[in-house]
Amino acid sequence: MVPLDVVWSTCDAVPECLGVAQEPYGRCLGHLTPAESAAFLRRLTPGQSLDLRGTVLPEDLLTRVLDGVERRLGRARFDRAVFTGPARFAEVVFAGDATFDHAGFERLASFYGARFLRNVSLREARFLRELSLHDARVCGHAAFDRVAVRGDALFGGALFGGSLPGRAGAASFQGARFHGFAAFDAAVFHGDACFRDARFHRAVSFRGSGCVAGADFRGVRFDGAAYLGPMRIGRRLSLAGVRAHAPVHLDTGGCRVVLRSAAVLGRLTARLSDAELDLRDATLGGPSAVARRAGRLEVTSLDGLDAAALTLVGADLRGCGLGGLRRPEGLRLRECLFAAPPGGLRLRLGWPPVRWWGRRRVIADEHLWRGWPRETGGQAAAPAPDPARLAAVYERLRPGVDDARVAADFAFGAMEMRRLGSARRGARLLLSLYWLACGYGLRAGRALGWATLVAALAVGAACWSAMARPSGKHGVQRARVAVVRPAASASRPAHGTEGWAHGAGG
Questions:
Q1: Contact status, residue 113 vs residue 136, Cβ threshold 8 Å
Q2: pTM over 0.70
Q3: 3-state SS assignment for residue 417
């Protein structure tokens, strides 16, 4: 039965043959007699269009055709062609569009160093052995959608797009299946590179590659190790919905990296520079590490992240909420940047009416919950959880912080959230007194200040009481001693009175 997409006049030799009929013979090139085939080949000229759709092409016949056009073709049509031997298109120049849709390659397919001056399409082509486009050049669009490569696929040093004026050709590998090793080392994509829903059964490598626009790996499945870099991305690298059963090595920068809903069961190792990272709803099964290589690494979302062991090094978390982490205790934070309260004196209609905010480190969720102005211009964070949830997050994050000061700030934040979220007035009052007295035991300066204040008040009270006494001098009263003399008797007069009596008588 002839497929519905076969719209050309097919060969009359046998009903099953889908080869395009060559005029004036009415049969395909594979069913021509030797004399007819020789006449067909003599009419070939360099750069002419060639239509061999549905034709079965052994190696020797393909070689004679390419030699007849001196390895330079115009518009080339090989849709549904079957290459029974090695298909060697090395160094061939395709001056017009080239199509190999639904073609079958039973042996090696080599386009080494080939030049496609316009567009090329190999949609749903089947390669039973190796495929090589090493050092190939595609000036227009390249379509490899739903191809199946049983052997290794080599695209090292290939260049896609960038030569046609006014547009950059895209390269599409949507739904492709690579059963062998796939190498895109040093490949350059001047337009978008799309690998959506592709599957790599073995290792894949993009070392030294570059994409001027964006690279789309949404829904890709990596059954083997994936080496995504060092690679240069112009705008966006999307790995959303990726399923990886082996280690993933990511090294890029200058773009936004999206790993939303990705599931990496092996180890994830990412080295990023001047990049934004989105890990919303991702699942990391193995020990993973994301490190800042140079510049700034801003993490925009960790909501719903399920990671057993993830280490963030040098990440900017000032605008990233951590309250949505499924396992906060699995996060290790090294040299990271956190949000901070607006420093200085603040007045408010409440208790206390005046408050001085220190520069302690807080997570973005508390920053949002308190309504403080944002420090970064990133994405808007999700609604902040309640204070009780924030207290638990602080406690579970604290053991994974390498900086002792940040860990102390997280302990302070946990107590602060417990105080503000307490429903019982008594507990809240006790925590408020604890906060006021010594900052939950974490602010020694506050306790020292209170001790100094109490001592100053005591000294002031003593001085006041001393100054409150009368200022006049007290007179010295001499003690008076009363001398009691014995009374004189009638027979013995008192001493000294006898002479006085005689004198008086005389």
A1: yes
A2: yes
A3: helix
